């Protein structure tokens, strides 16, 4: 079974990204197409990029980078659960992306964005520019949650029907792209271990 990595990109105290991410993780597990792993950037706590070598060489010197490399390398697809800050992605998310290069290649990406009136869509558009540079494939199907706090009740995210349908479509499409990109990922993994 392919592995889906769900990355919770908010690190702010009182964040709503955690309950949103918890809902999506449970939904993805019930979907049954992927084995689901989670990376919470708050717990990961990567310092601002501090590796001396360019990520494309995979010559990591620090234990936090080696662990992050292992987590991302094991994934076949990725979903970013991401808020919008000032029309863009969070700094911890951009930093986490910049730490690695080869590990991201040829993985389909689903975007679950949230925020105020825009539902995080401006940040999602900014992220697409970054992930395509890393040779990832952002799929068109995604989840956008406007006025996200209205859907949090007693610390639990309660999606509406449109969000549930969007999650279903995104996971279905991620499964298609994961299978299509699998030969390319396999070739990259073979080349990086030889």
UniProtKB/TrEMBL annotation:
UniProt-listed InterPro entries: Flavoprotein-like_sf, FMN_Rdtase-like_dom, NAD(P)H-dep_reductase
Domain of life: Bacteria
GO annotations of cellular component type: cytosol
GO MF entries: FMN binding; oxidoreductase activity
Domain NADPH-dependent FMN reductase-like: 3-143
Protein name: NADPH-dependent FMN reductase
């Amino acid at each position: 079974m392919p592995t889906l990595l769900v990355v919770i990109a908010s690190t702010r105290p009182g964040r709503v990204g955690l309950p949103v991410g918890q809902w999506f993780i449970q939904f993805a597990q019930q979907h049954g197409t992927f084995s689901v792993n989670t990376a919470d950037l708050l717990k990961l706590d990567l310092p601002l990029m501090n590796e001396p070598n360019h990520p494309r060489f995979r010559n990591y010197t620090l234990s936090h980078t080696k662990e992050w490399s292992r987590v991302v390398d094991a994934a076949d697809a990725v979903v970013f659960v991401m808020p919008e800050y000032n029309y863009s992605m969070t700094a911890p998310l951009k930093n986490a992306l910049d730490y690695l290069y080869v590990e991201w290649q040829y993985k389909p990406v689903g975007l679950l964005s949230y925020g105020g009136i825009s539902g995080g869509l401006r940040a999602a558009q900014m992220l697409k520019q970054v992930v395509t540079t890393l040779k990832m494939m952002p799929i068109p199907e995604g989840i956008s949650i406007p006025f996200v706090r209205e859907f949090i009740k007693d610390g639990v995210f309660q999606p509406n029907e449109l969000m549930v349908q969007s999650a279903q479509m995104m996971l279905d499409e991620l499964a298609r792209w994961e299978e299509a990109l699998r030969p390319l990922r396999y070739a990259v993994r073979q080349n990086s271990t030889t």
